[in-house]
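Aim 2, interim progress: modelling of the magnesium ion-bound target.
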Amino acid sequence: MKLVTCRYEDRERVGVITETAQAESGQEVVFLPYPDMNSLIETAAADEKAWEQLESVVHLKGVPLADVKLLAPIPRPRQDVICLGMNYRAHEEEAAKYDAGAFTKERPVAVYFSKRVSRAGDPEGEIPRYEGLVERLDYEVELAVIIGKTAKNVRAEEAGDYVFGYTILNDISARDLQTGHKQWYFGKGLDGFTPMGPCIVTKDKTSPEAAFPPALEISCRVNGEERQRSNTSLLIHSIPRILEELTAGMTLLPGTIIATGTPAGVGMGFDPPRFLKAGDVVECTIEHIGTLRSTVV
Ligand code: MG
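Predicted structure of the complex, ligand included:
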């Protein structure tokens, strides 16, 4: 199932995208009776029947997808987004080449950091470039995992049971703030630095994306030019391993978002670097989820 948060008739709604039989009307959105996505995830976590009801609405008549404005699927995360740094080998190498002091290679353990997100950026939204504060604005396409039920002391082999679904996250980074402050929190946590969407693909048993851990093509284009391409099967620290490690000491609540790291090809990886400028269009694509498109302003 593809779940969305959207604005329709001036109200924020949660819905599921359905394919209609009539080709001319294309995809539709069937609205669901939840105030927001976090409530939906929590209800589904607590009550299996609620999940079955959710699946039953896909046959109902909805409104055309073109008539709604898509918002980030979880516009206001309840907690920080948990992020992994250096989780694809080739990206680890390009980062070390850019700044060996800030991005040490060959780490035996996962790099975790936190991204502050008061409001996640919408699909087809804007990335603010903060002229005067930021000179080295960069993109990072990432697979984000959404936790579906309270997770504590999870074993790697049961990690799949705790995953609600997946979305695309662009981990926008101000490289000058990130390296200058010797700590990533500020450089990655500015307002508007977390575009997310366009939907959450749930971890259904019936869909092709249900394989766990997911092996999905992941790519990023800037102004139509491909910059990043990889596959989520190439994560250094896999989703089961991440969940096992984090939940050994940290309770992950339903709705928690984990950004699993970016592949090679970010702006700082080029020589000379190719940072974002006003008017650039960044398109992050992951197989079976869709494309998250943002414009730098
Ligand atoms: Mg990242």
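The first strand starts at residue 2 and ends at 8. The radius of gyration is 19 Å.
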